[in-house]
Amino acid sequence: MPRLATHGWVLALALIVLGVAPLELRHPIADASATVDGMRVPLKTTIEAMPATASSGPSAQLPPVAAYEAKTGDTVVTVAAKAGISVDTLTQINQLSTPSLTPGERLLVPPVDGTLVPIDPNQSLDLLAQTFRVNPDALRRVNGLSSDGKLPNQLFIPAIKTDAIAPVAAASSNPSTGRERVVRFVWPTQGTLTQYFWQYHPGIDVANDVGTPELAADGGKVTWAGWGDYGIYVQIDHANGFQTVYGHMSKVLVSVGQVVSRGQLLGLMGATGRATGPHLHFEIRYQGVPQNPLDLLP
Q1: SS3 (DSSP) at 97
Q2: Which CATH architecture has domain 9-111?
Q3: Per-domain residue ranges for the chain?
Q4: DSSP letters for 10-58
Q5: Tens-place pLDDT, residues 174-213
Q6: In the CATH hierarchy, which fold is given to the domain comprising 167-295?
Q7: pTM
Q8: What is the spatial distance between Cα 229 and Cα 211, in angstroms, rounded to a whole number?
Q9: What's the Cα-to-Cα distance from 74 to each of 98, 178, 277, 291, rounded to whole Å?
């Protein structure tokens, strides 16, 4: 699975975070800006973590993504910890491949967890907000966009709790784009939606505590239950062209060949395989092709 932030060095470095001298976390320099990976963002010499409530709903009050220049002694783990975001987020949006940072290296640092995704800049912000099920004002603010400006080639999509996602009708469409949404599945777990579906991530990630129940998104037959490409995971064939995948479990509670019903307990959330923290990696495939789960969930 093409997760960019799934390296063994994370666990080793996490053990020494508390022993590393703290970053300067006070007030950013005003009116400074920088361009990082094509994004024009405020430049900070310090980092501030957002309050824990900032990512609990589709709030429009998020500050914009900022740039931070690494200092001597900074690592991916320490910067993520001081910013109050996950290593996954910091690594993914900066396309990092090692835990070390070079002094002076510029990083994009968002105020909350989320995903940096490539987009078509000719699309409307409202349509993109509908696609990712987030508040358009929050999307505009966190990306530092003007109300009438052209969109960049990539957007940061902030994490949101699953219980804060507004439900959609069982069948709906946007006449201006022809985009249709048909709800076929139920949410397989609850938590915080931290990673979205995009080119190099063929599913969504929902983070929560180890042991959080994971349920069948629809009825079908279990075709895989055990260790594999997604750590401990379950795969279900729904006999209508759709298959679903539930990755990184801590424990599987079904077996291959078993017929399960919608909402049946499949296993417990974990962080097995290439994962840096407990979460469900959830995929929906149609005829073997990954689909955006948010198009098929309520």
Answers
A1: coil
A2: Roll (3.10)
A3: 9-111, 167-295
A4: HHHHHTTGGGSPPP--S-PPTT-EEEETTEEEEEESS--PPPGGGGSS-
A5: 544 444 556 689 999 999 999 999 888 999 999 999 999 9
A6: Glucose Permease (Domain IIA) (2.70.70)
A7: 0.74
A8: 20
A9: 13, 47, 21, 38
